[in-house]
Amino acid sequence: MLRWFQSPATETQITHGQRLWLYVIAVITMVLLVTPTLIVVPMSFSDSQYLEFPPETWSTRWYDHYFGSPEWMLATRTSFKAAFLTMLVATPIGVLAAYGLHCSKIRFVRAAFVLMITPMMVPVVLVAIGAFYAYVQLQILYTITGLVLAHTVLALPLVVIVTGSALKSFDMSQEEAARSLGAPRWKAFLTVTLPQIRFAVVTSALLSFLTSFDEVVVAMFVSGGDNPTLTRNMFNALRDQIDPTIASISTIMILVTTGMMVLAQVFGQQKTKSK
Amino acid sequence: MEAVRTNEAGLRRDEWLERMKLFGLGSPAILLILVILVIPVGWLFYVSFIGADGTFSLENYERMLKRKSYARIFQTTFEVSFLTTGLCILIGYPLAYFIAGLPNRIANLCLITVLLPFWTSLLVRTYAWLVLLQKRGLVNEWAISLGLWDEPIKMVHNMTGTLIGMVHIMLPFLILPVYGAMKAIDRDLMKAAANLGASPRRAFWTVFFPLTLPGLFAGSLMVFILCLGFFVTPAVLGGGKVIMVSMKIVSNIELFVNWGAASALGVVLLVSTMVILWIASRFLNLEKMTGGGH
């Protein structure tokens, strides 16, 4: 142990002992990054109104409350529906756009790229009130359609960036070879290019799903009525008081996110294996 | 000779058509962004110049300059953004440095601690802090039992709570680009510095640190801009005491249905964001940050 303290830590002559402070800070930071979110999980099984940790008596009463509430169930269905549809709309549109921009080397490509990442740069509050206004005119306020369209706009930059960077590292001459052998462009894309950028496409799809599922501000404005999202209802509940039911919902949301991450990892592993 | 030339022109036209067709693949995305985002925001821009009597006026902007409450909101917004960015640098840089020096396998494990919160819902994380920091929350309970302080401290529904929540949410946005910059540094440079007689500290500050600046700058910029327009965390953890621009925009619409005032604030927010991005783009390659460049 003592020898480790005195051994050099980096390429320079600093020893582990001399930079122990760095290790301490780093470990504390990592703990602080992860635990606050994870601690909600055991707390949600607490019987107390005040969400003790560790819970003195364990119970599933907050889960019962959640699953027994028609409002929460409605919101959960809306959120899943919107997220799933956003994924189905944003992924193909975004992949097509990324492919088009990548191959077409005309002058407007740069401008189009900037336009496609604007949803990421415009403050989300503006997107929300803008969409709210537009939806009143188009009469699609509080509909799934409206919600999905707005979330698609928010997800598009991610799809275009992730798929676009995959296309950049893809050797397009493979597609050219397929086409010179007689395959039409769409077929060359589907059978040669797409299978090789599938990891990026799947990642884009998962990101689109999560973008919609976790989105709060736009949902606050354009969802409601018969179609309120989970996040909208959660946010409203948080403004009033600390409702322990939210802890159980949070746990379920953490599960969904973690599931998505694991899926992405599994696809990533397949990619490295096949190489 | 004549035939060759027309053939050439024809080919060029075909190529141009093909390129336009390819470009057209982007049209659904472009159309959607135009209809849902660009046109409505353009309309907000227009509305911000319409007064209460329905004619062109600057009253929405004048109100912002005149009223003290607006000055306070802008001040709070910049304060929160600066403090969050600063704290993220102070906390995030050492962590990024620590992870960048680890062997790959352990580094990947440590990176999960950064990515996990990055992926977790913002609302869930904000809620977690609300639960932890409340008067009867875990932090107060533990601190009192450890003897750090005697009375429960109010850490939520104020600036402290807002900052804690914001820093937690923004940290990954800073750590990831800084980590990327650090991984790209050739560590032999540090060996060379040490070999030439530089102390570890000197080698760090004169060789290593300057090479991480682009990443640090990109990350800080990202954090700062996200903070400027942030809504959820200050709204929940600020408890009405920390009012930022985006919250005022929302209350202008939800409570007062004053589109003029909300739009004007929105325009100011958007323009400041764009100006900052524009200035930054003169110093660093923004396309590289978003993956647009080669």
Automatic annotation (TrEMBL), chain A:
Cellular component terms per the entry's GO annotation: plasma membrane
Listed CDD domains: TM_PBP2
SUPFAM superfamilies attached to this UniProt entry: MetI-like
Gene3D superfamilies in UniProt: MetI-like
Subcellular location: Cell inner membrane; Cell membrane
Location of the ABC transmembrane type-1 domain: 76-264
Keywords, sorted A to Z: Cell inner membrane, Cell membrane, Membrane, Transmembrane, Transmembrane helix, Transport
Membrane topology: Multi-pass membrane protein
Segments traversing the membrane: 20-45, 82-101, 113-134, 140-167, 188-210, 246-267
Entry's Gene Ontology BP terms: transmembrane transport
Family: Belongs to the binding-protein-dependent transport system permease family.
UniProt protein name: ABC transporter permease
Organism of this sequence: Ruegeria sp. PrR005
UniProtKB/TrEMBL annotation, chain B:
ABC transmembrane type-1 domain boundaries: 74-280
GO BP annotations, alphabetical order: transmembrane transport
Keywords: Cell membrane, Membrane, Transmembrane, Transmembrane helix, Transport
Major localization class: membrane
Localization terms from the record: Cell membrane
Any Pfam family hit: BPD_transp_1
Record field: transmembrane: 22-46, 80-99, 106-130, 163-182, 203-236, 256-280
Membrane topology: Multi-pass membrane protein
Family matches, as InterPro entries: MetI-like, MetI-like_sf
A cellular-component GO term for this protein: plasma membrane
Family: Belongs to the binding-protein-dependent transport system permease family. CysTW subfamily.
Protein name from the UniProt record: ABC transporter permease
